[in-house]
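From: lab user (bench 3)
To: helpdesk
Subject: output format question, protein + acetyl coenzyme *A

Hello, I'm new to running complex predictions and I'm not sure whether the block I got back is the full result or only part of it. Here's what I submitted:
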Amino acid sequence: MASLPSLPSTPISQEYPKWTPDHALDLLFHPDIIPVQVRRELHPDLHIRPLSRTDYNRSHLAVLSILSVVTDPGLSAYQARFDLLRAAPRTNFTLVIIDKQSDQIVAVGSVFVEHKFLRGLGSVGHIEDIAVDPKVQGKKLGLRVIQALTGMSEKEGCYKTILNCSDKNIPFYEKCGYMKKENEMAKYN
Ligand code: ACO
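Helpdesk reply: Thanks, we reran it on our side. This is the complete output you should expect:
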């Protein structure tokens, strides 16, 4: 008789007692759109998933604050913003990488899909707000976030994926397969 595949000796819930699995969360988009290859390449202590409505309690804003000014809006305003993003289907894709031991966010990133009239009603993916917790920078989490967002942009049919960054981050994005093209203009209010 063929032997059965062996089961893990410790159930996942005991290995990671704090970790909240996807099925117990209210997510921004369906997790299946995240490329399988990126999931496979993550360390088993980490998990990549869509932003959840309760990620206010998982250091989402603290991780983002390494990128720019973040003011605490409070839980209900955070969740109102989440609901606003989710109300526009196939447009806002924010994902997070979770440390399963702590159930806290260690990396975040977004792709905004702009639905155009040109190029046969084409779409463009805009990568925004990439941040990795300084404690775990240099471990390829930024790369995994960009690979996931780029794959999602492609799956959504975008004919290109673009982003703005400072000169110091150009080498990082080149390692992620991006190249410098054109210029950015900005006017702050
Ligand atoms: N200069 C040169 N190379 C770099 C840099 C850099 N600033 N950052 C990363 N790399 C290289 C790494 O050495 C690695 O190269 P390797 O494959 O040869 O080993 C490769 O890029 C992948 O690096 P990761 O380990 O994935 O990078 P990390 O997880 O640290 O994430 C990030 C990089 C996102 C820039 C992180 O340092 C960070 O959060 N910085 C602060 C916030 C920030 O600047 N975010 C980006 C804003 S732009 C935007 O949001 C569109």
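A quick orientation on your result: The two ends are 72 Å apart (CA to CA). Let us know if anything else is unclear.
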